[in-house]
Write a structure and sequence with these properties.
The structure holds two protein chains of two kinds. By secondary structure, chain A is an alpha/beta fold. Chain A is built from seven helices and six strands. Chain A has a single domain, classed as Pyruvate-ferredoxin oxidoreductase, PFOR, domain III (Pyruvate-ferredoxin Oxidoreductase, domain 3, 3-Layer(aba) Sandwich), CATH 3.40.920.10. Chain B has four domains: about 210 residues, Thiamin diphosphate (ThDP)-binding fold, Pyr/PP domains (Rossmann fold), CATH 3.40.50.970; about 120 residues, Rossmann fold; about 180 residues, Rossmann fold, CATH 3.40.50; about 70 residues, Alpha-Beta Plaits, CATH 3.30.70.20. Chain B is built from 22 helices and 23 strands. Chain B starts with a strand and ends with a helix. Classes of the chains: A alpha/beta, B alpha/beta. At the A-B interface, helix 1, strand 2 and helix 2 of A face strand 1, helix 6, strand 8, helix 10 and helix 13 of B.
């Protein structure tokens, strides 16, 4: 399945790690993957956005640009998923999301959903919110909130990568803390699958 | 052959490795900084015999690579676009002399700009310098071009520029890793004074030789695989597109999305432009749109521009990045005009909503615990009415503390301060002037300016912010370090000795975390600039970057708390400006953000009312409890 994923957060929240994980996983699944990252000045606490485009071998690009791969940037209004690691960045990056797309957002505020409803957005997009930071804190590592949110995102309908594929990519990532990352990912998956989990 | 998902800059490095690069030099700068480290990674992994160095600046880096090329080695040098301004003296001359081993410059442009002081187009620099330039659209193509650039360079004996933009350098894509060439070239410099030490008479001959080389390069580019045209029809098409680099990839995608089939010519070899290929294409279209970044290099070279639209006639904006949104608007307009497309819907259904929220901007800030903040805070206290000449690095963010009034280019803090001093001196005015510069930037371009300032009798305070690393671009070691790029050891070029050698007679080294001692040093320095026998006074603010080396902080953590007396005056938020100080709107009191605070204790000085205090007994180190705030 093809997919355009936009990741939005603040420098230091692990947006680059999430991007690398998704890209690596997609390539391991035999997909073509192209994306754009934010480096430099904005990493000092600034807004960070990552573009990830995944293309399955069954729907290759038209011939002329086939060898080059996709263009690195996602155009506004065309992203299938917006995965936001902070509320403000969800709103800032909202123009990228397409009609019928899914917003996955890390938020501690149950009011966020109400605000989206008031703005009438929930009629056109699916909003799935989770307090990923609370779960990460419960696990004793605030830094894994990004992985919790990815686990949660993987349970969304039409997400282009399966939870199993992402777990495999996490294990093969070579990071020293892959075990705690895996635990965090599974907690995110559980929160996405369990209707009783307080994911608002 | 294996697949790997890599950053564009890593793909370029891999291309260089596969082509057999043996000397790799660079000065770090976004978006080019990841190229050299990736070369190092493969050097180590594949145990390759490669010299890799972080040079002190881009001119040095280019000349080192050029010297190696003259001795027959394949050499590459990486820099950001403004780095080429620094290296331009060497480049323009090297175009005349030519090379022996392949010489490839990777110069990364920054349309936007995202992390640079200009949006300059390196492809126009290539035109000016008469050096071939390649313009990749994606990491995959950049990798192929990096390899091909060496072949091209050796075939025509010219330096070749590979010019990715930030969206290629920082794109991430799956690429194929191919075999790595053997490195068995002898080092052999063949003496040829008429070339390598040419006098003006020989320079004319070399210029004529260069012109002939460029003619043959252009002929070769007519059939280069990096240029390709599609959807050409027998009939003249109402609209055709010539595009390069990322705008090509984005435009291609947009045309597919629109479902429109029009002729497209992709140009990867921008200079010298294959003019026959381009002219034939233009002749087969009624109008042609040229899409390229960040300026007009292909458009300028088109022999007949009568039916051509682009930057020169204002069809394409003359500043800013050609994002998919900008391209969408341009293409939709021209396609609609050519009756090839019905008027398009707005790009995003939520754009207006998001705009209506008026979200606060999230500007970059100095990190919690950054020693630059402490230094700037002290500067503002001691020199409330100074003119602050700043420089390029993390510490440009001293603007947030109003301790940076100017930022021009690498090393300009010292020279702008000199000029400001001379201007006020002419009017017999004593205006306090403070220049601030980082350790790596001082070594890059500060030393010459300092020698000049001392020699010409300028008077100002120079603060060298020495945090032990090139922090902004990813912690590359400086020459004031015993670590070299590849982890081996080398002699340290000590900044204090350089300062002394420039003739500076007032020099103090001080830890800006020790506000008392640091401010005393600043006051002394200020007095020296006013002395009858005074001059430039230098204070080196020495404290490691908290992201790079946390050990001093961990050895002596100072946890702080805000007392109930906090009256919400916001002084600390404005003057000390630490991201870990937050105003709680409900209580109207400042709070410490425990998630980001690094326990540096520096904000104790940031509240002059004394409402930020050390948390009692919170520190495991007894000594720190006795530290005076």
């Amino acid at each position: 399945m093809n997919g355009k994923l936009l990741l939005a957060g603040i420098g230091g929240q692990g947006v680059l790690f999430a991007h690398q994980l998704l890209a690596r996983c997609a390539a391991e699944q035999g997909y073509d993957v192209t994306g754009a990252e934010t480096h430099g000045m904005s990493q000092r606490g600034g807004a960070v956005v990552s573009h990830v485009k995944i293309r399955s071998p069954s729907s290759p690009q038209p011939a002329p640009s086939g060898q080059l791969g996709d263009a690195p940037l996602i155009r506004q209004g065309t992203a299938d998923f917006l995965i936001a690691f902070a509320e403000t960045e969800a709103l800032r990056a909202l123009p990228f999301l397409r009609r019928g797309g899914t917003l996955v957002v890390n938020t501690a505020s149950p009011r966020f959903l109400d605000d989206m409803t008031r703005a009438g957005l929930d009629e056109h997009v699916t909003v799935r919110a989770l307090d990923a930071m609370a779960i990460a804190e419960r696990l004793g590592r605030r830094s894994v909130a990004n992985v919790v949110l990815l686990g949660f995102a993987s349970t969304c309908r039409a997400f282009p990568l399966t939870g199993d594929a992402l777990r495999a990519a996490l294990q093969g990532h070579g990071s020293k803390s892959w075990q705690s990352n895996l635990q965090a990912f599974d907690e995110g998956v559980r929160a996405g699958s369990d209707p009783h989990e307080p994911s608002h | 052959m294996t697949q790997a998902v890599v950053l564009g800059n890593e793909a370029i490095a891999r291309g260089l490795i596969e082509a057999g690069v043996q000397v790799m030099t660079a000065y770090p700068g976004t978006p080019s900084s990841e190229i050299l480290p990736a070369v190092l990674t493969w050097k180590r992994r594949l145990q390759l015999n490669i010299h890799v160095e972080w040079s002190v600046n881009e001119k040095v880096a280019l000349e080192v690579a050029l010297g190696a090329s003259w001795a027959g080695k394949r050499a590459a040098v990486a820099m950001k676009q403004v780095g080429l301004n620094v290296a331009s003296d060497a480049l323009l001359s090297a175009a005349y002399t030519g090379i022996v081993g392949g010489l490839v410059l990777i110069v990364c442009d920054d349309p936007g700009p995202h992390s640079s002081q200009t949006e300059q187009d390196t492809r126009l620099f290539a035109l000016f310098a008469k050096v071939p330039v390649l313009d990749p659209a994606t990491p995959r193509e950049a990798k192929a071009m990096a390899h091909a650039a060496f072949t091209l360079s050796e075939q025509f004996r010219v330096p070749v520029i590979l010019r990715p933009t930030v969206r290629v350098s920082h794109a991430r894509q799956n690429v194929t890793l191919a075999d790595v060439a053997a490195r068995a070239r002898p080092a052999h410099f063949k003496k040829e004074p008429a070339r390598w030490a040419a006098t003006p008479r020989h320079r004319l001959l070399l210029h004529e030789e260069l012109n002939r080389k460029l003619e043959t390069v252009e002929a070769a580019f007519e059939s280069s695989p990096f240029n390709r045209q599609s959807e050409l029809t027998a009939r003249r098409s109402p609209l055709g597109v010539i595009a390069c680099g990322v705008p090509y990839a984005s435009a291609r995608e947009l045309l597919d999305e629109f479902g429109v089939t029009i002729p497209v010519l992709k140009i990867g070899t921008v200079y010298p432009l294959p003019r026959k290929l381009a002219s034939d294409f233009v002749a087969r279209c009624e109008t042609v749109l040229v899409l390229e970044e960040p300026d007009a290099a292909v458009e300028l070279q088109l022999p007949d521009r009568r039916n051509v639209h682009g930057r020169l006639d204002g069809t394409v904006p003359n500043a800013g990045e050609l994002t998919p949104e900008v391209l969408h608007a341009i293409l939709a307009r021209l396609l609609t005009k050519a009756a090839l497309l019905a008027p398009a819907a707005p790009a995003s259904p939520w754009a207006d909503f998001a705009k209506s929220l008026a979200l606060p901007a999230r500007p970059p800030r100095l990190c919690p615990g950054c020693s630059h903040r402490s230094a700037f805070y002290a500067l503002r206290r001691i020199f409330p009415s100074a003119l602050y000449a700043g420089d390029i690095g993390c510490y440009t963010l001293g603007t947030n503390l109003r301790a940076v009034d100017t930022c021009l280019d690498m090393g300009a803090s010292i020279t702008i301060a000199t000029g400001l001093y001379q201007a006020y001196r002419l009017n017999d005015e004593q205006q306090p002037i403070v220049a601030s510069i980082g350790d790596s930037t001082f070594l890059h371009s500060g030393v010459t300016g300092l020698a000049n300032a001392v020699h010409t009798g300028a008077r100002f305070v120079l603060v060298i912010l020495d945090n032990g690393t090139t922090a902004m671009t990813g912690f590359q070691p400086t020459a004031d370090d015993t670590r070299l790029a590849d982890g081996s050891r080398g002699p340290r070029v000590a900044i204090p000795k350089l300062v002394r050698a420039c003739g500076v007679r007032y020099l103090r080294e001080s830890d800006p975390y020790d506000q008392g001692e640091f401010r005393a040093a600043l006051e002394e320095a200020a007095a020296f600039t006013r002395d009858d026998d005074g001059g430039v006074a230098v204070v080196i603010a020495r404290r490691p970057c908290v992201l790079y080396d946390r050990s001093p902080l961990d050895a002596q953590p100072i946890a702080v708390e805000v007392t109930d007396e906090c009256d919400g005056c916001k002084y600390c938020l404005v003057a000390f400006e630490c991201p870990s100080l937050l105003l709680n709107p409900a209580t109207d009191k400042v709070e410490i953000d425990r998630a980001t605070c690094v326990d540096c204790g520096q904000c104790i000085d940031g509240c002059y009312k004394g409402f930020i205090i050390e948390k009692e007994f919170a520190s495991p180190v007894p000594g720190s409890l006795f530290r005076t705030p």
